[in-house]
Amino acid sequence: MAFSSQLPENAVKYKLFPLLERKSSNKSFSNSTSCEIVAETYISKLSGFLDRYIWQNESFNLRVVDCTTDSDPYLEGMTCFEENIDDEWFIVYLLYFLTQSDKDLVVQVQDSDGEFLLIEAAECLPKWINPDTSTNRIFIYRGELHIIPMAQNPGQITPIPSGVPSISNAVAAVRRYSSVTRASDSTQEAIQRRIKEYPFKIDTNKHRAHCYLPCSVAGILMEDPKLIPHAVKAFYLRDPLDLKACRAMKFFAPETRVMTEVVFTRCLYAQLSSQMYEPDVRTGWNLPGVNNPLRKAHELGMKLACGFEILASNADKMMNVEGSAEHDFCNDVRWRRFASNLKERGYFRGEIEGSQLYNRLMLQAKDFYLLCLKKDTNGNVDPGARIRSMLETLNINYDEMKAAEKLLKPPDSDSWMEITPDALDSMLEQMSHKNYEANVGKVITDGLNSFVNHRSDIEGAEIPSNKQKNKKQKINFDPDAFTDAVNTILDFRVPESDDDGSSSSMSGYSDEEEDDDIGTGEEINCKKGAGSKYKNIQDMKIYMEQMDRELAQTDVGLSFDRVSLQPSELKDSTDGNVADINEEEEDFRPVDVDLTALKNILESYSSQQGLPGPVSNLFSSMGLQLPNDLDS
Length: 632
Known about the structure:
By secondary structure, this protein is of the alpha+beta class. It folds into four domains: about 5-195, no CATH class; about 205-315 and about 390-415, no CATH class; about 320-380, no CATH class; about 475-590, no CATH class. It has helices at about 25-50, 85-100, 115-120, 165-175, 180, 185-195, 200-205, 215-225, 230-235, 240-250, 265-275, 295-315, 315-325, 335-345, 355-375, 385-395, 400-405, 420-430, 440-450, 470, 480-490, 530-550, 565-570, 575-585, 595-605, 615-620; strands at about 10-15, 65, 75-80, 105-110, 140, 145, 205-215, 255-265, 455, 460. The strands form three sheets. It has a six-stranded antiparallel sheet with strand order 2-3-1-4-5-6. Helix 10 packs across helix 12, helix 12 (about 295-315) packs across helix 16 and helix 13 crosses helix 16.
């Protein structure tokens, strides 16, 4: 799966291949510079979205990768989204947006699961696509998904017939043969369903809450609200050493608390509010009673302040680790350009590369470069160090913050955290993208009849196909063979009747009738003759009706649902001795097989309570899916 196997869990990696203009004979330097300019252009186009978005962990980023081969440099980025899957799909939206803005841009995106865009559209993909055949064949181009097809036969047209194409050949094929590589409309729609709510979802996915915070925390959040995810994560992943810092509260004492508004994402708010934490009473967190309406604001403020305390307390340790971290100088285009300029200006004093003086000068240059890189943007600074720095520079006015409490708007309702059964059913139905027929009973009974009447053998039942073409196939039925098989297995006899018309035996035979002689009842047989087939069927019908009547007098019959028939219909449906029985049993009604089977199936399915069971497994193998709500 290309680079997906190297990705950490819950991370998405994206490669952008812009069409670069060659303006210099120094191809490598010129294209790298052009690629850097393109990256700045892309970030500028996305700035309106990025400024409004609150990331769970890492933000969207781009860096230049300068290839050592003849292929052009490209842009690459990786974002670890952790628990918030919305970050991943927001990045997909950004990539779609860029490919619509730059008509020559081709994008490849994967996560730790591989081609997750194909997973979303799994129901409408060509059969040849699998993790082994999709490598370097899936791209985003001009706001659409493109799949470079693999030839299944010599007559099929495809730009790259087989094998794993090189990334440069694959990108060129998408640009040149876009009409051939464009994925189907159903595949496009499956992806669009996940990103169509953006960019409006950026704001709808936020949650405004009131938090009773130390005024220093409130001031830091006003200056840099994007520190929220780091503080929530620090509290969410706290360990015993972090709890020690929370008991001391060296940087954010609770005595100067103010009520303020904090904007979370729904994921961050759910993580923070769901944490159970009882603060040390000696710290000064005097929380109101459980039933107090301000209890939630006090708890959120206490947890968030503890998160900031953990970050600030660990700042020194993080800065020491950061200073010893290795930087990837080999793939850093800016460093290579910086080193080239140093060499042209005589910084290395004419020393041979690899000499002792040369290596010492190189080490000094790298240290200076890293120092400049850290000062370049706050995004490269540890959040704890950022907090410590802001504590020293910010001018926080406690009285003004207390006065601003009266101007706060009501917080957002967090009722979205409580999912009702109906809301859950609706969500599952939207995820399945399946439309159930209105007449559920008809669907179930038709499917069950199709299964019962289908072919089976000693190895088991054959599941009928739900394809339309199979519905048109004729079924050949041999009545003689069927009757012979039934007689061989059961040796059926018609029940004997007494003079009063009542049945003398349920089984139709006794120990004295085990020979082949014909008794008072007519033996069901398979004698060849012009009327034997019709006679056998009639005998079988009489036998089954008689069995229904005897079962109706027992407790077993109470579980059957019966057909509502008029007396005239009952009389016309029988003859002979059976008609005499109907005269005595006027309330007899035949069993409604379909309704009885449907009722039992639904009761069994309901008892599964949404878990796997015999009914759901049976119908799944038959190509049927029961809806979630079967109360009606």
